[in-house]
Write a structure and sequence with these properties.
alpha/beta; Rossmann fold; 3 domains; nine-stranded mixed sheet; 12% strand
């Protein structure tokens, strides 16, 4: 069912269960029957992702896991994500509102150009644009008939996108008076009271090896402070609380963030990433969206079949943010990939250029997970997004990473460090460089052996879906206050023990100062005595020597 808000009216559109596969529908039915026989009652849960395709997919995958355990799940999303929510088999509540300005028309072209050129100022401007757009969409929800629709659903719990630029979304469940859980792809441990040290746990935008230098650790500390401070000073100054809940005791959305019952982070922290500190209220669920490959469309299956591609296949996609590869980069990529012995299937949401090599097929959309799970795929050329890397890890496919922004550089560096692939700078590469890199990773079994070893470990870990279901049910029954550490309730200066360090430093300085003063005083007092003593000793020595000379 879809609740669609258009000009303050709500249209209800039914979604048939045919959107679910037969096996998926059977699993759902069996799980639901067992859940009902157990005497438990399903809750009504609202998913609130930010207006971005990959985020909507993360929330949809999480919602499917919860729905399979007997809960009723609704997704509050922008109307442009209607098809994605329908494919998940969940109930969609759609907001008819503009997307972020940088996602529209010429501004999107400029943003893509900023990604390619790594223009930090333009990227920051886009982030600020997202903040304003999220606030506008929250305002639409709270001022339209949609808020009444949400109240009528009698919701029990919400999942809120915890991205730094989407903090205003917490106002919605707070207005509804329901508990909420943070679901995010961004690891921000300090904001959740996790005592993470940047010297051993690198931030997501800059990877450091295990044996790091002083300058690398200093850089990590500075980046950690900046990442923690930036949302506080730039993204948390929302006027939505004062406007819609003027009697609220809470003044900022940062306080709403801290009231989250639990945190789920879409990060694999064993072999793709590195082990990180966790806590009872903070859980890593990397891989919640990965699954065995399903059947491919007929035209794609024929193109990548073993008979038509005896040397294997290379998959090339750059995620939902970089939809159109700039022609200057695309030209070099086509020339480099056209020289490979493998067939290449590439996603690019633009007109197909002229003179595309015969071994390359370009399509506007690709079933990425299903392609990576095909046994004839030898290599994945990617921008280094979290979801794509998790799918490559699950299926054991080595990668060539061409990062554009944010955590993609960190993701590319860790792929290199762990031997799962190589990285090519999309801003500055030659046709020959890309050709040799792709050829090496696609044909060298060392990369495939490394990532397939990690894939076996990954599949042997606890299922993240089970983690989500277990802890969500725990929150529904008991709440989450008892799970939160004391560190969430203390100010930052206590969290980092700045008062202790200051006391120790002051004490050491005082000790050194007193020691120096005492030494100087003793020296001054003892100097006359030392002079008299030395003089007396010299006279005695000289007298004895003179008497000895006379005796001789």
């Amino acid at each position: 069912m879809v609740f669609e808000v258009c000009s303050n009216s709500i249209n209800i559109i039914s979604i048939p269960f045919q959107t679910m596969g037969s096996r998926e529908l059977l699993n759902y039915a069996v799980t639901l029957v067992l859940f009902m026989l157990s005497g438990s009652h399903g809750a009504r849960i609202l998913m609130i992702p930010v207006d971005h395709h990959s985020h909507v997919n993360l929330f949809a995958n999480t919602g499917r896991a919860l729905q399979s355990s007997g809960h009723d799940v609704y997704v509050l999303a922008n109307i442009r994500h209607k098809a994605a929510v329908e494919r998940s088999g969940l109930t969609a509540i759609l907001i008819d509102a503009p997307s972020a300005p940088f996602l529209q028309g010429e501004k999107y072209d400029k943003f893509e150009d900023a990604l390619i050129k790594n223009d930090a100022l333009q990227q920051f401007s886009a982030a600020r644009s997202i903040v304003g757009t999220v606030e506008d969409q929250v305002d639409i929800v709270l001022t339209s008939d949609l808020i009444n629709t949400l109240r009528e659903l009698q919701l029990d719990l919400a999942f809120v996108d915890g991205s730094g630029f989407a903090q205003s979304l917490y106002v919605i469940p707070y207005k509804l008076g329901i508990r909420y859980i943070t679901l995010t792809a961004t690891h921000l441990p300090w904001l959740a009271g996790i005592p993470s040290l940047p010297s051993v746990e690198p931030v997501q935008i800059k990877y450091i090896p295990e044996e790091s230098s002083f300058l690398e650790r200093l850089e990590q500390l500075i980046l950690s402070i900046m990442i923690h401070a930036m949302p506080h000073f730039l993204f948390y100054k929302s006027g939505l609380l004062a406007k819609h809940i003027p009697s609220s005791e809470i003044a900022t959305v940062r306080e709403l963030h801290d009231r989250s019952e639990l945190w789920f982070v879409n990060l694999e922290n064993i072999c793709l990433d590195s082990p990180r500190i966790s806590a009872p209220h903070y859980h890593f669920i990397g891989g919640v969206g990965v699954e065995p490959a399903k059947a491919l469309p007929a035209d794609i299956a024929e193109f990548i079949s073993t008979s038509n591609a005896p040397q294997g296949v290379i998959v090339v996609t750059f995620g939902s943010l970089v939809k159109r590869v700039p022609r200057s980069i695309l030209h070099k990529m086509l020339n480099a990939l056209g020289r490979q012995h493998q067939r290449v299937i590439m996603r690019n949401d633009d007109d197909v250029p002229d003179n595309v090599p015969s071994n390359i097929l370009i399509k506007r959309w690709l079933p990425q997970n299903d392609l990576l799970g095909h046994p004839n795929v030898k290599l994945f050329v990617t921008h280094g997004g979290q979801n794509g890397q998790l799918e490559a890890l699950y299926h054991g496919v080595p990668m060539v990473v061409m990062p554009f922004a944010a955590d993609q550089w960190n993701n590319g560096q860790r792929v290199m460090h762990k031997g799962y692939g190589e990285m090519v700078d999309p801003r500055d590469f030659t046709e020959d460089e890309l050709y040799e890199t792709v050829k090496n990773v696609a044909n060298n079994p060392w990369y495939r052996e490394n990532i397939q070893r990690c894939s076996k470990i990954f599949k042997a870990l606890p299922d993240p879906k089970e983690t989500i279901i277990r802890w969500t049910n725990h929150i529904l029954e008991h709440g989450g206050d008892h799970l939160k550490p004391r560190s969430m309730k203390v100010p930052m200066w206590q969290f980092f023990m700045w008062d202790i360090w200051a006391t120790v430093l002051i004490g050491v300085h005082l000790l050194i100062y007193v020691s120096v003063v005492c030494f100087r005083c003793c020296r001054r007092c003892c100097r006359p005595c030392c002079k008299r003593c030395c003089s007396c000793c010299c006279r005695r020595c000289c007298s004895k020597r003179s008497q000895k000379d006379k005796a001789d």
